[in-house]
Specification:
The complex is a heterodimer of chains A (about 475) and B (about 525). Helices cover about 45% and strands about 30% of the residues of chain A. Chain A is of the alpha/beta class and about 475 residues long. In chain A, helix 9 packs parallel to helix 11. Classes of the chains: A alpha/beta (about 475), B alpha+beta (about 525).
Amino acid sequence: MKITRAVAFTLFAVLFGLAAGFPSWSATTRPAVDLDVRLAAPYALAGPSQTAYLRVGLTGVDRGRGRRAPVNVAIVLDRSGSMSGEKIEEAKRGAIAALDRLGPEDIVSVVTYNNTVDVLVPATKLADRQSIYARIRSIGTGGNTALFAGVSKGAAELRKFLDAGRVNTLILLSDGLANVGPQSPGELADLGSSLAREGIAVTTVGLGLSYNEDLMTRLAMSSDGNHFFVEESSDLEYAFATEFGDALSTVAQGVTIRIECPPGVRPVRVLGRKAQIQGSKVFASLNQVFRDQTRYLLLEVELAPGYAGQSRRVGDVQVQYRDLATGRSTQTNAHASVAFTRDSALVEQRTNRDVMIDVVSQIGRANNELAMALRDQGKIEESRAAYNSNSEYLLKNAVELGSVQLDQEATANVIAGENLEGEAWKRERKVQVQLQMKGATQRAPILREDDKKKETKKSKKDD
Amino acid sequence: MKPRLIIVLATIVVVPLVILGWLGVRVVRGEQAVLESQFRKLVAGQFRAVELELEGALAAVGQTIVEETSGPIGGPDAFRDLLRTSPLCDQYYILDRDGRLIFPPLRAVTEQERRSLERTRALWEEGAVFAAAATAEQRAAQTDATSSIEQRGLPARAGAGPSNQGWHPWYASRGLELMFWRRDGDRVFAAELNRSRLIAELIAVLPETEMVEPDIAGGRIRLLDRSGRTIYQWGAFEPAEDALPDFQSNLSAPLGAWSLQYFAPSALRGGEGLLANLMLGLVLLGLALAAMAVWFYREQSRAMREATQRVSFVNQVSHELKTPLTNIRMYAELLEQDLEESERGRHNVEVIVSESRRLSRLIGNVLTFGRGQRQGLKLHRASGVVDEVVADVVQGFAPALRRAGVTPELRLSASGAASIDRDVLEQIVGNLLNNVEKYASTGGSVAVSTAQDGDRVTLEVADAGPGIPAKDRERVFEPFVRLSDGLTEGVAGTGIGLALARDLARLHGGDLELIPSDAGATFRLTLHCPRAGDG
């Protein structure tokens, strides 16, 4: 009797599982990530050794809006004295509005910090919304900024439900300088890269003009999270919404990219991204890929001399990621080849414009960082010269390649050169750091709040 | 006399206070010491709990690293693949039996490995980690504090000896860093920890601070690095910016460079409350003692005053007795000479009789007072007529009054027979008339009236003298009180007359009062005199 019931139950469960699983099978016949590997110049001039750029693009595939992976999100809020008033109220509103978009299967934790840390809402399924919202609304302000401890506790909450099928995100909000506990950008970056290896991305939201943008961006960048510079607290809700939008549209996590260069191709460096080069192999990782969004990696290689008519494989790319729809580890491969020719017109003609734009953009970003370093050393005139020459470089390429993006980046450099002094620089630096960060995360550009600001600034300038 | 009394009293107050205060302070000190030691134990317990948490977290980290790397180690690339996914470690190192690095392979290091080697070069040059590992077996015998995980309760891998793994602390620019090492056959494997991650792991196991319902009883605990910077802190109590910790203790190895500090809210430490209580007690006791001293001082002064009054009384009485006696002697001598001349003789005899009566009265008063003081007075009632007694007394006083220039007016209407103590009535009326003679002779007249209403007999003696101020209306009835000092004013008196009269009146079921009047003084005597024959 007992046995028959157990058997029936098992049968039922299996059938039910099949029924439930079947549609997802058909839905996942397409891979979650579309891998695209191409060279800036598929044709190269025969002759001496030369530099080439390889671009590995990863695009999240929209496989129907019906399903999304559940998220595991920790909101870590600064409640130091400087957050009092409108700022904390907007932060609470933003957090609650963002949580409103989540469902009962999603996991939420809320951590607040000032001198000490309070795990206000330990990691829990979002079943009882109202009590969580009530706790968020009860947050008061006062004291200092134990940012590191806040992130540590937030990460510990995420770790309670760290599994392959969830999008793990920590959202950190701060408006001030971390002044309790470890507080150097390097230390936070180390923490970020450690969290990234567990599949946790830290998105940082810097509010106002007093936070340490280096700390916030390096923490975000090292964990492959996002960074927002929110000047007015009224824009917080937008930042939260955007970040939650990203988290909810994640299709793949734990992405590792491995490029193997065959003989005759030597990897030199990866532009603007932390990567490891071991002999002929290159390793890099991304924390996540979002639906309908392309993320890319640019590898500079040195091609050994080739003769006309020779075709050579430049890189075998292997990408491994966790498909959030299935929770399974998936692998895709692709490669790119270069053909040597004596026809320079052909080389010119077949140059890959999109890849060249990315290459120029990354070089421009590196120049931008150098210009900022000069300004940080107090060399204002040298810094201005560096911004201007970078702007000229970007503009020249923008014209040649017909790129709006490069034109915008050129303009951003001009604006930076104009705001190198006093309070204006304090704000401008935050804008620039955010732009650098966005360039470094190598996401395809999407219009964000700062872009709008840039647009309005540009039009003002035109006036 | 008086300063000495004050000094004695002050001593009586101060000495017990000082002794009690000293004892109290000793008790409080002792109590504070007990509290302090209990508090120390409490904090030491908390610190121990924190250390256990940290040790547990370290052990867990070590265990994770062991599991991470427990598989068969392939070539360098496989090892690098392993490291790329390790959230805990920045770099792995492997040494051979002779302490030579075999990973990272020095011939072909990556950029990151080159930086790691540079950072940790001092370690390899000193050979510290590997010296530690190499001598681990010998050290296992001693219980050295140098960080054997085994001591911290991490279960060793099956079959592994007690000192097959451990921590090696070292210092870089950022402060304390940890290296985890483990023996693997004849090789030594070491992992350089991601410092930030290590700190985050430790923070994760340490307590948080409840924002909504803060733990009131708690203090603030801080974990500090070697240079005294806070790594993490918890507890709702917020010490002042420059507050010094109440307790401080270094962590044990391998986190020996770090310390714990405890800041206690003052309420938690106690002791201050005890001292305040003691102070309050002493102040109350002091007040009580001072009140007692004041009371004692006042009693003492009153006794002194009474004694002085008594001495003065005896003097007065002697003085009083002398005058009538002299008169009696003088007139008696005159009588001897003048007995033939009848008119003058009669007058002289009158004076002798009058003065004798006065003397009898005085002596009577003194005797009555003395009796009253010793055993109380007794009433001897007999049937009589009040008016007759009063008339007799006035008659007897006539010569004295005449000499003082006072004319008595009698309005007597208590002629019914009543039960009275004749002696008592005579004594009262005599004392009243005596006062008139002495103090109110300036008025020139005295009205004596009686009335009888059933059992109640009323007698009023109204003079036309200077009168008695309202504030002294009751005081005149106190013994030995004389409103005007008789000796200085030339008026003699003992000061017991009115007091005695009132006592006698009350004994007779009535009272003697001074009643308000337009001029002079009017005394009203009421007596309880049942009609003779009624009872």
